Amino acid sequence: xxxxxxxxxxxxxxxxxxxxxxxxxxxxxxxxxxxxxxxxxxxxxxxxxxxxxxxxxxxxxxxxxxxxxxxxxxxxxxxxxxxxxxxxxxxxxxxxxxxxxxxxxxxxxxxxxxxxxxxxxxxxxxxxxxxxxxxxxxxxxxxxxxxxxxxxxxxxxxxxxxxxxxxxxxxxxxxxxxxxxxxxxxxxxxxxxxxxxxxxxxxxxxxxxxxxxxxxxxxxxxxxxxxxxxxxxxxxxxxxxxxxxxxxxxxxxxxxxxxxxxxxxxxxxxxxxxxxxxxxxxxxxxxxxxxxxxxxxxxxxxxxxxxxxxxxxxxxxxxxxxxxxxxxxxxxxxxxxxxxxxxxxxxxxxxxxxxxxxxxxxxxxxxxxxxxxxxxxxxxxxxxxxxxxxxxxxxxxxxxxxxxxxxxxxxxxxxxxxxxxxxxxxxxxxxxxxxxxxx
Length: 439
Ligand SMILES: [Zn+2]
Ligand SMILES: [Zn+2]
Known about the structure:
Largest sheet: 7 strands, mixed
Distance between the termini: 51 Å
Strand order of the largest sheet: 12-11-10-9-8-14-13
Helix content: 25-40%
Order of helices and strands: EEEEEEHHHEHHEHEEEHEHEHEEEEEH
Bound molecules: zinc ion
Radius of gyration: 26 Å
Structural class: alpha+beta
C-alpha cells in the first residue's frame, strides 16, 4: 500500500490483540516528515514515489541488497518495530559511497542534499546508513524505480546508445524486471547488438500515441515487425507515465520479448555524468513483456505505443529516410572494422519535419470553407481502426488505422496540436467498420 496524498509506500502494522491493521508513513526518516494522515491505497492505484534511501533524491540508479534490517523506535505510544527488508534504493552518488563503505560521505550527503531533519531524525538516519553498510550483500542491481527527467535521444547518437545498452545486458550488474536470467540476458545482448535502429519523428510519435489509445486486440506476426530485432526511439516520451523514450524487441522461439526504456543520467554534474554513461549508458529497463506467439496486444498493454508504431509502419503510412550518424561514432565504427551504423528516421508519409523556408505562402483553400484564408499547416480529419482481411483466403484480420484525409497545402507542416484534436473524436469499435477509402 502507498499513501494517496504523497505517494510514499506505507508501513503496515497489525495490533496483536485486536488484529486491527493500520498504515503509517515509514519512520524511515529520510522521506521526511509527512505532515498529513496516511491515506492508504493499493500500490498499483498510486504512482508510488520512490526515493534514494540514503539522501531522498528521486533519481535512483541502483538497488543494493542486505540481510533483513529492522529498526526499533521508542515513541510516546510505546515501542515501534519496523521491518525495512532487504532492498535499498540508491541514487548514483550514494551508490558510489555505499560501494566505498564511506559512512562519513553518506552522512555528509544527507546533510547537504537531504530534507531538513531534526537532530533525532538525523542520528536515526545515520544509524540506518551504518546498518546498511554492515549488512551489505555483494553485487548491485540496475534500478527501475524513482524518477529521472525524460530526455528523448537524438537520432544521430542511437548507434552509441545501442552499443552501451548491449554492454549493459552483457555486464555483471544485476538487472530488474526478470531480465537477470542468463539466457534472457544473453539473447538480449545479441539481439540489441544486431538491432536495426529506428527514430520516430515528433508527428509520428504523436499519432502512434493517439492510435495506441484505441488499439483493438491484435495478434502480431513477424510480418508486422519492421525488423526481427530492433531498437526504436521516440521523439517525445510515451507510455502511461510519459517516461519511456525507447523500446527494443527480440524475436525468439518463445515469442517476442519487448523492453521499454526510460532515459537516465540527465542532470548529473559533468564528471559524475561521464562515469554514469560508462557504467550504465543512456537507457534503463522500465517495462519488460514477453509476448508468446498468439498472445494479443491491445490498448491496455504496456507496449501498446510500440505495437501501434509497428502497425503504422507495416501499413505504409510512413516513410523512412536515413539519418546522418554523428561523425565521431561513424569513425569509431570504422576504426573497429564494423560496418557503418545506420539509423532510420520514420515519419508520416509526406510530412515535413522542418518548416519549408524561403517560399511565398501559396494560397490553398480548404474544401468546406470555400474561398478563405490560406492555411499554414496540414491536419488530419478522421481516424479509426478497421479490421483488414489478409492472409490465405483473406481469413485473417489485422487492424488498420484509417486516416482518410490529410487536408491542407502539401508543402506545409502537419500541425501537431491538430493531430491530437482532430483525431480525438472517439474511433468506432473495430468490429463496426465504417465506409472508408477503398471500401
Ligand atoms: Zn502521505
Ligand atoms: Zn542518494
